[in-house]
Amino acid sequence: MATDAGELTTTAVRARGLTRGFDGHAVLDDVDLDIAPGEFVVLLGRSGSGKSTLLRALAELDDGVDGSGDLWVPDSRAVIFQDSRLLPWARALDNVVIGLDPGPASLERGRTALSEVELGGRERAWPNELSGGEAQRVALARALVREPALLLADEPFGALDALTRIRMHVLLRELYDRHRPAVLLVTHDVDEAVALADRVLVLEAGRVVTDRRIDVDRPRDDRDPDVLAHRD
Ligand code: ADP
Ligand code: MG
């Protein structure tokens, strides 16, 4: 596959023939994937289908894992996991600005990010004083304050109750509309996929078996029969 610099600037993710395996067993099997800048993609699949393995590959967090293929991802990436992974010894605002240049400008950006996730009043809260949903909102602020070209999220709302999850869907779509990163969000929840995505990929046994655009203006149960068929 020929590439040149011009092409790379119009692509947020490009993977060709991506293969990953454990103990001689292929978990990702020859995956090709393109994500355009600013595209919101949900990767849907059953437990064990290889979603996290693919996300970790795109995050380049899989050093030492057997694999092959070609991968281009932007340097400016942010990753969110199911658990917020906040530093317990740092207050909410310090968790958001961690790793940024120290100084008032970064603190101001962090404050803005916290207010964008509706936690403007919780800058000085310790992680153990936050609910699960609040902690994930801090993790979202920590990701977005970096203005990543690519946001990777592995079942970010999987540990939250149903009502909090729906609230997070609305918030995430608002933040996405404001910041427009390319997004790859992993879930096993078909309803979450059709609620969030402009495009849904379905992974089965390490292969992308479905790749569909979703029309978010259609009624939810009428969005895409191919994707909805994956409901359990
Ligand atoms: P998903 O996120 O879709 O649930 P994973 O990507 O976590 O799936 O895992 C896919 C398969 O790869 C599973 O069979 C899992 O047991 C295996 N696997 C994942 N990570 C490892 C690892 N570090 N060592 C051995 N096997 C692994
Ligand atoms: Mg997983």
TrEMBL record:
PROSITE patterns: ABC_TRANSPORTER_1, ABC_TRANSPORTER_2
Secretion signal span: none
Keyword annotations from UniProtKB, A to Z: ATP-binding, Cell membrane, Membrane, Nucleotide-binding, Translocase, Transport
GO molecular function terms listed in the Swiss-Prot or TrEMBL record: ATP binding; ATP hydrolysis activity
InterPro entries on file: AAA+_ATPase, ABC_transporter-like_ATP-bd, ABC_transporter-like_CS, ABC_transporter_ATP-bind, P-loop_NTPase
Keyword check for Translocase: yes
UniProt key word Cell membrane: yes
Boundaries of every ABC transporter domain copy: 13-230
PANTHER family in UniProt: ALIPHATIC SULFONATES IMPORT ATP-BINDING PROTEIN SSUB, TAURINE IMPORT ATP-BINDING PROTEIN-RELATED
Name listed for the protein in its UniProt record: Sulfonate transport system ATP-binding protein
